[in-house]
Amino acid sequence: MAANMARSFLQVAATEEVASPLRVVQIEGLAILKIIKHCKEFSPALVTGQLLGLDVGSVLEVTNCFPFPIREEDEEIEAEGANYQLEMMRCLREVNVDNNTVGWYQSTLFGSYQTVELIETFMNYQENIKRCVCIIYDPSRSNQGVLALKALKLSDAFMELHRKKNFTGETLREKNLSWVDIFEEIPIKVSNSALISAFMTELEADTPVTQCDYDRLQLSTGPFMERNMEFLIECMDDLSMEQQKFQFYYRSLSRQQSQQQAWLQKRRAENAARKASGEDPLPEEDAANPIFKPLPEPSRLESFLITNQISNYCNQINGVAGQSFNRLYLMKALHEE
């Protein structure tokens, strides 16, 4: 009985551990450097890679990573890519490196990552990994003097809705789901071993000013702002096209309802005449009639993603513009002195 009680306790503890929400993503400094190196080497091309680590309570530990080879969309090449991943994980296991998959990382250009492909990848990972994250790194944003690294996951409410493939307006209102509820950003904590921290402390006193420190003082942010504005305009055009789809749907729905009302009035008048002549009335609804066939409502997923992307571009423009004004005021004060 003691063994059964212990087994039950472990099962309950494991269930509670799995059910605990993800609070923070803890990444080893070496893994971050590998991600940055891989993304910058192939920029502006977009690259991806695998994240390895451990899922411990409310913390997802990312201890290592390896890049995926750049390949074209082909079934044979995709099979080779899958074999490559398995072989890499086997080699890491042989040298006692964590080989548990906890997600993937990918590069982006000016924050353009909120796509249907990203959601589909999340759903594929979720089939085998209950809690996984995607690390997004933006080399173009990092050139502005910040570490553009973020960890994302899909919200539970959105995943439940995505499995049903039902993104109609009525369903979204019932679930109280808006475009800001698609992704959840998880805080990132950088972790290093005590030996690495001691070594970095030893180097810190003698470290000269690097080129990155000078880059933060650059007054020209024109190229970055220009590209963001171009992408923002493209997103606005895409959103306008999505709105036109919904306008066409509502016009078609209104036209169908008018046709249904006209048909019903005609049928009721015909039934009144048949009743007066002693004949049986005809049914008022005819399923075979095309005007009674329900019109499929367009999915709102694409418009949600476009709105999310527009918000991201606006936030980037506001952030860079604010930093630029600070630099200009700083330079103005220096010139006056």
Could you describe the 3D structure shown?
The protein has 337 residues and is α/β, with parallel strands linked by helices. It has 2 domains: 199 residues, Cytidine Deaminase, domain 2 (3-Layer(aba) Sandwich); 106 residues. 56% of the residues lie in helices and 15% in strands. The protein contains 11 helices and 8 strands. Strands 7-6-5-4-2-3-1-8 form an 8-stranded mixed β-sheet. The radius of gyration is 28 Å and the shape is elongated. The protein starts with a helix and ends with a helix. The N terminus is likely disordered. One of its GO terms (cellular component) is ribosome. Belongs to the eIF-3 subunit H family.
Secondary structure layout:
Elements: H1 2-19, E1 24-28, H2 29-42, E2 48-56, E3 59-67, H3 75-94, E4 101-107, H4 116-126, E5 133-137, H5 139-142, E6 149-154, H6 156-164, H7 169-175, E7 183-186, E8 188-191, H8 194-204, H9 211-215, H10 222-276, H11 301-336
Parallel strand pairs: 1-3, 1-8, 4-5
Antiparallel strand pairs: 2-3, 2-4, 5-6, 6-7
Helix pairs in contact: 10-11
